[in-house]
Specification:
289 residues, alpha/beta, Rossmann fold, 2 domains, six-stranded mixed β-sheet, four-stranded antiparallel β-sheet, 10 strands
């Protein structure tokens, strides 16, 4: 399933002293099965952009297509669009409200009229996908869980709606290192094992480098770069312009290159860096001065 953004602009409070353009003439497409990261400094328009994907915001100008259907076209039901494109907001645990984990995850499917027996199977399946034990946690209060578990409950609530696309806004924000690693591993598995198209909004270039195959860069409401992760992160000028840093390991490889070590600089992860440095050292060409 694809999402196509066509000449999208969004202005908050138009015609008032508080008028602000949050998205300015943005065009790009997310194809079925992709893992795309959307990055940019605070205020660049990331959250505004993703809220257009399932019709939570209406464009000031431009159009959004989901499976080639203009979601604001005549006769199109946004309810069906929101079943296809699931959005997990930043700090989704703040949206938990039911008395048990089961009821919280079941809320969405029940709200669209799914029969009770199917609701139960959807809840079980969604909890398994995000690494939560159904029998152990189904009757627990979500408010008794750890921060990472609460976040996975919120994700399961979206998955239980059976979307084709999952959009995550800063999913690891505020978690401790263990919780962060767990949630990122679950997101990777949703894409690689279960085949979801994933859109990740993140300030962490390290997380983006580990997970995403493609990066869309926003700066001051405009799209300034869109391409394979290695290509975008190899362009330090673009990232600096957007107020972003390349991953630390990539900076390390650039520094080794400046010190005459014949290493590749399109390295994004520690594992890649390890193999590249070993390759150079075994060739007897360390050259570090």
């Amino acid at each position: 399933m694809s999402i196509r953004v066509e000449n999208l602009s969004h202005t908050y409070n138009p015609g008032t002293p508080f008028e602000r353009c949050a998205i300015d003439d943005v065009t790009f497409e997310i194809n079925d099965g992709e893992f795309v990261a959307i990055v940019g400094e605070t205020g660049s328009g990331k959250s505004t952009l993703i809220q257009h994907f399932n019709g939570l915001l209406k464009p000031t100008k431009g159009r959004i297509f989901v499976d080639e259907v203009d979601i604001w076209g005549k006769g199109v039901g946004l309810k069906s669009i929101r079943q296809k494109v699931g959005l997990v907001f930043q700090y989704p645990e703040h949206q938990l409200f039911e008395e048990t984990v089961f009821k919280d995850i079941a809320f969405g499917p029940r709200n669209i009229g799914i029969p009770d027996d199917e609701v139960e199977s959807r809840v079980q399946e969604a909890m398994k996908m995000v690494g939560l034990d159904y029998k152990e946690l189904r009757d627990r209060s979500p408010f008794e869980l750890s921060g990472g578990e609460k976040r996975r409950v919120a994700m399961a609530g979206v998955i239980a709606m059976k979307p084709s696309v999952i959009v995550l806004d800063e999913p690891a924000s505020g978690l401790d290192p263990r919780g962060r690693d767990t949630i990122l591993a679950e997101i990777r598995e949703l894409h690689e094992k279960f085949g979801f198209t994933v859109v990740l909004v993140s300030h962490s270039m390290e997380d983006v480098a580990k997970l995403a195959r493609r990066v869309v860069v926003l700066h001051k409401a405009r799209l300034i770069a869109d391409g394979p992760t290695k290509d975008v992160f190899s362009n330090e000028d673009i990232l600096r312009r957007a107020g972003l840093e390349v991953p630390q390991v990539t900076r390390l490889m650039h520094e080794l290159k400046r010190r005459n070590m014949d290493v590749r600089t399109d390295i994004l992860t520690v594992e890649e860096a390890k193999h590249e440095i070993i390759r150079v050292l075994k060739g007897g060409d360390s050259g570090v001065s």
